[in-house]
Amino acid sequence: MDLNQPDREARSPWSTNGDKQEVRIHPPRGAVKGTIRVTGSKSMTNRALILAALAEGRSIINGMLKSDDSYWCIDALTKLGVPVTVEGETAYVDGCGGVWPNRSGELYVGAAGTVARFLPGALAIGTGDWTLRGSRRMNERPLAPLLDALEGLGARFDYGLSVGSLPLTLHAGGLQGGEVTLPGSTSSQFISGLLLAAPYAKAPVTVYIDGEVVQRDYVQMTIEMMASFGVTVEGSADGQAIVVPQGRYEARSCSLEPDVSTCCYFWAAAALTSGSVRIEGMNARGTSQPDIEFLEVLERMGCAVVRGEDDVEVRGTENLKGGFTISMKKWSDQTLTIAALAPFADGPITLKDAEHIRHHECDRISAICKELGKLGVPVEEHPDGLIVYPAEPSPALLDSHDDHRMAMALSLIGLRVEGIRITDPGCVSKTCPEYFEQLSALGMGIEF
Q1: What domains can be seen in the chain, in order of their start residue?
Q2: Which of 68, 333, 402, 403 is catalytic?
Q3: How many angstroms separate the CA atoms of 251 and 163, rounded?
Q4: pTM above 0.90, yes or no
Q5: For each of the chain's 448 residues, which pLDDT tens digit applies?
Q6: Which residues are CB-contacts of 33 (< 8 A; sequence separation ≥ 6)?
Q7: CA distances from residue 375 to 65, 347, 413 in whole angstroms, order as listed
Q8: Nearest 10 degrees: CA dihedral of 252, 253, 254, 255?
Q9: Which of 188, 249, 319, 347 has the CB geometry, 3.0–4.6 Å to 215, for a possible disulfide?
């Protein structure tokens, strides 16, 4: 396999533009103005699917995200024997009550970090032997802390390429319960993956967290969604210990809010073009998705933000302000988005506390510095982030690095600079297959 080529196997039947070699972005003729609706949160979709599969009875999930990540989650649940029917943006899940109908087989998780981190614990509560494998990059991403914790509770693993990573074979015989410790610095998904499975252990589970948690809000999202399915956990005052009682999830109907991470690219389009973009179905004050803090950065850069009960509108400015430092620890998915905005600000922007994104779909810090460099943008790379200086970017062919967030962030530069081309535009199907079509509907020139 050519390591420089996209991992096409990870693309699902819900992918679009997978056959396109590159996309050319043409700046709009005027300010971007429009109202759009963004599909459901990726993080909430896969949590809801796992919870519904473990629950007793039929759950209805409205507003689910149809993307590669959710496809591979549904594919795995179906192979486990859980019936899942998808009609439009609604999924009907007939849960197994914590007893998987099938006991052995192979499951493919694609490039979905949530699926790779949520399935091992959920499988370990049952009995049987399951082989899990993922995309080329997913096989390189860390899993060891979660797998070590599960082994401490009774699971057994055999490894294919290297210890503590995919591919692996899980020998499940139930989780014993008790106390486990997980690091907070690598991925909040380790904690969420253990919490989701813990109610089905043979005794209560206490999860101790070592160190500060990156993207802690996603752990809180998991806890809140567990409660909505009928299992309430207890946490210490400092959030470093979580006690999960024995219990069973109950089927429910739920409606998922739009994916804020995706919303940010469209709000950024308004910021870059002195335009206005309103996204329907979004309550900025009520969401638990941490990327909503992006709105505060846009305000700091001079944009106006109107937060309604069921919509959020961003109105851009002629002169974006810079000259500040931001910690990206809680909402690191927007590091690349701000880096794409930064060349057009009136002062440098420093992004820090994001070392963990070096272990995502690509080494995102290194990758964005490399691509900004191709544009002639002065940038300083640091272990935990980067500094981007004001510049007038030059036309260039940019590499998406088979990373949806790289492709979407780099596309924003094309709103101000003619001649921006991006390789492998189909990679956005990981979270937003219709991304380029929505950009086109807002007035951008999109040419495949």
Answers
A1: 8-38+258-447 (3.65.10.10), 42-255 (3.65.10.10)
A2: 333
A3: 36
A4: yes
A5: 444 577 889 999 999 998 899 999 999 999 999 999 999 999 999 999 999 999 999 999 999 999 999 999 999 999 999 999 999 999 999 999 999 999 999 999 999 999 999 999 999 999 999 999 999 999 999 899 999 999 999 999 999 989 999 999 999 999 999 999 999 988 999 999 999 999 999 999 999 999 988 889 999 999 999 999 999 999 998 989 999 999 999 999 999 999 999 999 999 999 999 999 999 999 999 999 999 999 999 999 999 999 999 999 999 999 999 999 999 999 999 999 999 999 999 999 999 999 999 999 999 999 999 999 999 999 999 999 999 999 999 999 999 999 999 999 999 999 999 999 999 999 999 999 999 999 999 999 999 9
A6: 270, 275, 276, 277, 442, 443
A7: 33, 18, 10
A8: 170
A9: 188
Per DSSP bridges, beta strands 84-87 and 253-255 are unpaired
Task: State the CB neighbour count (10 A cutoff) for residue 381.
Answer: 14
CB atoms < 10 A from the CB of 230, how many? 16
Do β-strands 253-255 and 56-62 pair in parallel, antiparallel, or remain unpaired? parallel
Task: Return the structure tokens found at 177.
Answer: 């319960």
